[in-house]
Specification:
Layout lengths: L4 E4 L15 H13 L4 E5 L5 H10 L8 E7 L11 H8 L4 E7 L2 H8 L3 H17 L3 E7 L1 H7 L1 H13 L4 E6 L6 H14 L4 E5 L6 H10 L4 E4 L13 H11 L13 H12 L16 E2 L2 H9 L17 E2 L7 H8 L8 H17 L7 H12 L7 E10 L7 E10 L2 E9 L2 H13 L10 E9 L10 E8 L4 E8 L2 H20 L6 H5 L7
Parallel strand pairs: 1-2, 1-8, 2-3, 3-4, 4-5, 5-6, 6-7, 7-8, 9-10
Antiparallel strand pairs: 11-12, 12-13, 14-15, 15-16
Helix pairs in contact: 1-2, 1-11, 5-7, 6-7, 8-9, 9-10, 12-13, 14-15, 15-17, 16-17
Length: 535
């Protein structure tokens, strides 16, 4: 298979995205992960822009990287001075990076209106910058900024700029759709023409402003580009860059091109979530290939078909990119969904029970419940409908009191009275708000009899208004995510009273933990990796 170089610019171009900020340690950790998966190039930053990027190149030089080559990014020399005197050129040289990527102007609009130089000076800036770093022994990648806009505005000048870079010693010319406004057919035409005018390899760098950056990158490869630049998860300025996760998966699985090493494609889901976590960003559930919903099936007809033949509704097997198949339960479910979800509880051979569970789910979802994001509550629901659910404790009553005086923080206190193991527990606890106070009081009452609850922690709390037309009297749905040292699970509660909805979700979370520890329900991991036949 033809090898396509993968050039990652998450640490430079990706960090320009709104809300994205990597620490020095973050950048080094991502570098290590990308190298482990066999990326060809990692662009570490612009050494002149800030002390963090300058230090990155010092630190990364001491890392024992197995595959990736580190690139330092910079611009062509400033107008009117020699490259050997330009601070940007000197910063690239002094970074000691084995690869230098220099970006220069291709669009005559930018030459005359942004740089305020004539065309000959712009060509000299390209030649001098590339030539200076080439003479220093660096592998030189030339990024032709705005190449596609520049070509359609003034094709002769655009081609002169990339030929100037080649003549000065560039090893690779990368054509950039910097504004992200071009479509795949335009990309293909320009890449073909550029190849006819160059004798060195061509790469592609696309932004996603028209939501076709991945398609544009693939189109360029089809026309002979041998390097793709982009970012993990497509993060970047404005609408982001080409998502290398999708680019890599498509190139390898669909186009049969060689990419990465060390079985890196099978770890794309892991990589995607690793970068999200380090960047402190939420996962995109619908992200192709690696999102949690990428292989999630909800419609009953779909689940029935996937149970028989996974390829009927999946374009690849999830394992090929390190993802898993999920079956969702909702009012849209059919019997196949329920069968798939109850296999681990060995209840799927009872058609009447399956029908009863489905009817219960549909009735509860009509009231505002939603089980696709609360699979622990669904597992408890199955036990209740099957008649083998025994509550671990009985609520007698609870009360939550919130007091505040002018200028003081609110004081929240929860009182709970319940029966556990035949004994009545009556406890009071304070907390940061009513849910925290209820949680603290519940644990205080139960932990003496059920000490394994000490291992459990709440990690997320979400509230959604269901019938907003009712205003402040609207019914709300509360989803709580909990964890222990082994598993993560989610539960749901619905009520017109937000405290009662929270209580219902809290109780389910505690009950699930206790049943799970007894081995009487499947774990969340079991739910995420449904036992359905693979292709």
């Amino acid at each position: 298979m033809t090898h396509i170089e993968i050039y990652d610019t998450t640490l430079r171009d990706g960090s320009q995205g709104e809300g994205v900020n990597f620490s020095l340690q973050d950048k080094l950790m991502i570098t290590r992960k990308l190298d482990e998966l066999g990326f060809d190039f990692i662009e570490g930053g612009y050494p002149l822009s800030n002390p963090k990027d300058a230090e990155y190149f010092e630190r990364v030089a001491d890392m024992d990287l197995k595959h990736a080559r580190i690139a330092a990014f910079g611009m062509t020399r400033r107008k009117g001075i020699g490259a050997e005197e330009d601070v940007g050129m000197l910063a690239l040289r002094d970074s000691k990076a084995p690869v230098c990527t220099v970006v220069g102007k291709t669009w005559d609009l930018h030459v005359t209106e942004v740089l305020r130089v004539d065309e000959e000076e712009n060509l000299a800036m390209i030649r001098d910058s590339v030539g200076f770093l080439h003479a220093e022994g660096r592998h030189l990648v030339y990024d032709a900024e705005h190449f596609f806009d520049g070509y359609y505005a003034n094709p002769d000048f655009a081609l002169k700029t990339i030929r100037a870079a080649e003549e000065a010693g560039a090893a690779m010319i990368v054509l950039c759709d910097t504004n992200g406004g071009r479509l795949p057919d335009e990309i293909a035409e320009c890449v073909r023409i550029a190849r006819e005018n160059l004798s060195i390899p061509i790469g592609i760098h696309c932004h996603n402003d028209s939501d076709v950056a991945v398609a544009n990158s693939l189109s360029a490869v089809q026309q002979g580009a041998t390097q793709v630049q982009g970012t993990i998860n497509g993060i970047g300025e404005r609408c982001g860059n080409a998502d290398l996760v999708s680019v890599i998966a498509n190139l390898y699985l669909k186009n049969k091109r060689s990419v990465l090493t060390n079985d890196g494609v099978a770890h794309l889901t892991e990589l995607s979530r690793y970068v999200y976590e380090i960047a402190n960003m939420n996962f995109r559930s619908g992200q192709p290939f690696v999102g949690s919903s990428a292989f999630a099936h909800k419609g009953g007809m779909h689940v029935h078909a996937v149970n028989r033949l996974a390829s009927s509704y999946e374009h690849i097997t999830p394992e090929e990119v390190g993802n898993v198949r999920r079956v969702l339960v909702s009012e849209l479910s059919g019997r196949s969904n329920i069968v798939a979800k109850t296999t681990k509880n060995r209840l799927d051979d009872d058609p009447e029970l399956m029908k009863s569970i489905l009817e219960k789910v549909q009735n509860l979802e009509n009231e505002g419940y939603q089980f696709e994001a609360a699979e622990a509550s669904f597992d408890l629901l199955v036990k209740k409908v099957a008649g083998n659910y025994e509550p671990k404790f009985e609520r007698i009553h609870y009360r939550v009191n919130v007091e505040t005086d002018q200028g003081l923080d609110p004081l929240t206190e929860a009182t709970i009275k319940l029966r556990v193991n035949g004994n009545t527990e009556h406890v009071v606890a304070e907390g940061d708000g009513p849910v925290n106070a209820l949680d603290t009081a519940l644990r205080k009452a139960l932990t003496p009899a059920l000490p394994n609850l000490q291992e459990m922690h709440l990690v997320d709390y979400k509230v959604r208004v269901i019938n907003s037309a009712e205003g402040t009297a609207a019914r709300v749905r509360v989803v709580i995510e909990s964890c222990d040292q082994h598993d993560v699970w989610s539960t749901v509660g619905v009520s017109e009273n937000i405290i009662e909805a929270s209580w219902l979700a809290l109780v389910d979370s505690v009950e699930y933990k206790l049943y799970k520890d007894e081995g009487k329900v499947g774990t969340q991991a079991d739910s995420d990796a449904e036992t359905m036949p693979a292709r």
